[in-house]
Predict the 3D structure of the following.
Amino acid sequence: MMKGLRMVDKSTHPYGLSTNLFVSRKANGDSLVVGGLGEDASRWTRVLSQRAAQMFWYHLTRHLFPEKSDMVTALVSTSPLRGDHMPTITTQVKVEPRPDGGYDVVGWVGDQTWWVRLSDYEARRFWTALDIALYPVGWQGRKTKTQQ
């Protein structure tokens, strides 16, 4: 069950306005590592399930590209939900625009939450990195068939 973004004030891991964001696929391919530099200049990282990463991408797509989001999101495949019992993996992500610009992101790891704020610029950079990590061959998959 998704909790409201009011959790930002009570987040167990608040990173604040973050920069230098990155996305990397873990060797097992089931999850992704995301992170950046937090408001206090300390580096943070989080492991996201494939589904949570797709939710993150989906929410950013709807906010950053509202005029094209319906078409783009219809082209991608999704992953099944993963159980909430994974104590170290983010299984839910919510992105909300801020009235003063940028976005608040809340991730759920079991009963704990983490929160990060993204500027418009960082949100676009992060969306690009997430897009490449999730869909390295594009949204429609491979266009050419392999030779047998």
